[in-house]
Structure formats: C-alpha cells, structure tokens
Design brief:
Belongs to the major facilitator superfamily. It is a multi-pass membrane protein. It is found in: Endomembrane system. Keywords: Membrane, Transmembrane, Transmembrane helix, Transport. This is MFS general substrate transporter. By secondary structure, this protein is mainly alpha-helical. The chain has a single domain, classed as Up-down Bundle (Growth Hormone, Chain: A).
C-alpha cells in the first residue's frame, strides 16, 4: 500500500508542478502588463507637451524662457525622485513606491485640467517629474532583475512608453486647436486613475523580492548576503561604482534629446518651416518611430552586439538630424525625425540591460533608480536649455544643439565599461 501511494504521489507531482508553473506564468504576465500600462501613461504625458507648448505660450502670454520654467520644475521633480528612491524603496518597498508615484501623476493631471494659473502649472510639472521618476526607477529595476527574457521585455516595456507618446500628440493636437485646450488633461487623469487601480490590484503593495518569488524566481546569492545593508551603506556602495556615473550622464543626455525632439520639433516646424497647427502630428511620427525601433530592431541589436550597436544608431541619428538642420522641407524633416525616433528608440532599453551586466545584482534596482531619475531629469533640463537658446538665437538653434548632444553621447558610451568591475 505504501509503495502504491508513493507511486501515485510521483504521478501527480508533474501535474501539480505544471499547475504551479502556469500560475507563476500568469502572474508574471500580469506584472509585466501593469508595468507596460504605467509606462504608456508616462509616454502619454511626455508626448502631449510638444503639441500643447505653443498653445501654453499663447494662453499665458509667455516667451521661450518663461515657458521653459515648466521643464525646470519637471527636472527638479525628477532629481528629488532620484535622490529619494533608494530611501523610499528600503522603507516602503516596490509596490508602495509604484503606487505613490502613480498618485503624484494623477495629482498632476487634476491640477492641469482646468488650465490653472501659471505658477500652479509649474507645480504640476514638479509632481509629474517626481511621480515618473519613482515609477520609472522601480519598473526598470524590476524588469532588469528578471532572469527570463529580460532584454526582450525591456524593449517591450519601453515600446509601451513610445506607444503612449505616439497616441498622445494625435489627441493633444486636436485639443490645441480647441478653446478648452486643457481638457486634454481630463483624458490623462482618467488614464491615471486606471493606472492607480491596476497597480494596487496587481502588486498589492508588496516588495519586489516577494513579487519575484510569486513568479518562481529565487533571490540571488548577492541579494541574500546583503539584506542587512542600510540606506546610508547602499548610497556609499552605489557612489563607488564608476559605471553608474557614466550611465547616468548618458541617460540624462539621451532622454533629454528624446524629449527635446518630441517637445520642440513642433515649434521648430511652425516657426522655421511655416508649418500649420497640424505640425503636431510630426511629434507623433517621432514617438511612433521610437516605438517601432524598440520592437523591430531587437534582432539587429543581438546580431551586432548591444554595446557596439549604440554607436551605429547614434551616428546615423546625427546624419539625419543634420538633414533636418539644412534641408528646408517639411516632408523631408518629418520623415527624418521619424527615422531618428526609430534609431534612438532602442537605446534606453539597451542601457538598462547593459546596466544589469555591469552593476552588482543586489544594487541594481537602487542604481537604476538613481540612473533613471537623473536620466529623466534630462527630459526637463535639455528642453529648458533649448528654450533659453531659442529666446536668444531663435528656435533654429534646436538642430545644432541636438547634434552637439548626440556627439557627446558617442563619447560617453565609449567610456562605459563592457563588463562588471569590482566596487572600489
């Protein structure tokens, strides 16, 4: 009888294991889908800036320098989020920090919806930067910590951002021609509410290590050995890694270039190429290219090598940006900008994946928080610098500035180590 019962147990165990595996797979898909929706909302937020920026200038009667204060406020929010992320992650954990970030984004759109006084609009951009900094850091750290299909999932995660940024200008351009232009943010607030609900339902305020266990991923040996690290000790270890500095500065310039193109290209086309209000669709073309590049170029990235392919993509982008600079054609400029989006699209997921290879696993989420926060600050800093330059030299200064920043990216990436080095 005993041997029969044992035989039945062995017969049933594969079935039980299969059920557990299917449950873990479903949970993993839910986790990833929730993070993709979160990134789509961030892309929606960034994509709406370009078409609405000329309207904001006209509505509040402000010039390039003053309207660029929105980007300064956004930058401050990102930097505060980058600095606070490590401490918040240690105290609250992944699930709670994600939800905190989503609440700040919701507050952003609630403030923006009634077209508030300009100082309140500035504060809303601060909230947006802080919320997006927390969400971006946590989501990149979570997906970058996965052991299965990490590179593909990073590409798809950031393609979700591009998809949101592609759809947003299509809607924002319509509102930019309407009397109540700020009602665009009511739609944004609705999406933000769904984001809060989804994050609460899927992650249930849990820590990252608990969520990874739910999908069958055990913590790494490094993580187990370093569970007693304090936040002060974590900061010290992070700041001892040279790659973190290089990746952070590269991220700052890359994200800054990306958002500067999406945010200011509409103004450039209207002012320098005599484009009409429909120029807002060019911003959609850029972000559509961004999405396509993150999905379509995955095979090329693996074939050539992710570290090497970055040089190719950036150099080709420089060549296309030069044509936008010197060729006075709306059609050519629109096509070139879309292809720049295709080429720049894969760079951020590649950066995150490369960071997972050169940064110790137990520090990766915390490091990505800092890198992402500083990188996202570029989405505010570089557009602000563009505004300052435009107020002095005109919006024609956009293209030489972008070319200079892309050249800097090439030099920085050459300094990024190809493999992990020991912490000093």
């Amino acid at each position: 009888m005993l041997s029969r019962a044992r035989a039945l147990q062995y017969e049933e165990s594969p079935t039980i294991n299969n059920q557990i595996a299917r449950k873990q797979n479903r949970r993993s898909i839910l986790h990833f889908a929730a993070l993709c929706w979160c990134f789509a909302l961030e892309g929606w937020n960034d994509g709406s800036v370009g078409p609405l920026l000329p309207v904001i200038q006209a509505y509040y009667s402000v010039g390039f320098s003053v309207v660029s204060l929105l980007f300064v406020s956004n930058c401050c929010g990102f930097l505060i989020g980058a600095g606070a992320n490590v401490w918040l992650n240690e105290r609250l954990g992944f699930g709670k920090v994600m939800i905190l970030g989503s609440l700040f984004l919701l507050a952003t759109f609630v403030i923006q919806s009634p077209a508030p006084p300009f100082p309140a609009l500035i504060i809303s951009f601060l909230f947006a930067g802080f919320g997006m900094s927390l969400q971006g850091a946590q989501a990149n750290g979570f997906v970058g910590s996965l052991k299965k299909n990490k590179s593909s999932k990073l590409m798809m995660l950031h393609a979700s951002y591009g998809l949101g940024a592609f759809c947003s200008p299509l809607v924002a351009t319509q509102f930019s021609q309407a009397r109540h232009w700020s009602y665009h943010y009511i739609i944004s607030a609705g999406i933000a509410v769904s984001n809060v609900i989804i994050l609460c339902a899927v992650f249930r305020f849990k820590r990252q290590e608990d969520l990874l266990l739910e999908i069958g991923q055990e913590p790494s040996e490094e993580a187990v050995l370093n569970t007693t690290s304090t936040s002060a000790n974590l900061y010290q270890q992070i700041l001892n890694i040279r790659a973190v500095y290089l990746l952070a500065v590269f991220a700052l310039i890359y994200v800054g270039v990306e958002v500067t193109i999406g945010g200011w290209i509409v103004t450039f086309i209207i002012r320098e190429r005599d484009g009409g209000p429909a120029a807002g669709y060019i911003s959609s073309g850029f972000f559509g290219g961004l999405t396509l590049g993150r999905l379509a170029l995955m095979y090329i990235n693996k074939k050539i090598g992710e570290h090497r392919v970055v040089f190719i993509y950036v150099l080709l982008s420089i060549g296309l940006e030069v044509t936008v600079w010197f060729v006075p054609s709306i059609i050519e400029n629109a096509v070139a900008v879309s292809f720049v989006g295709v080429l720049l699209g894969p760079l951020w997921p590649i950066l995150v994946g490369h960071g997972a290879r050169v940064i110790p696993a137990y520090l990766f989420t915390a490091c990505m928080g800092l890198i992402t926060g500083i990188g996202m600050a570029g989405s505010a800093a570089l557009p602000f610098i563009t505004g300052v330059l435009a107020s002095k030299y005109g919006i024609k200064s956009l293209q030489p500035f972008l070319v200079a920043m892309m050249c800097t990216m090439v030099g920085l990436w050459a300094l990024v180590p190809k493999a992990r080095r020991s912490i000093a």
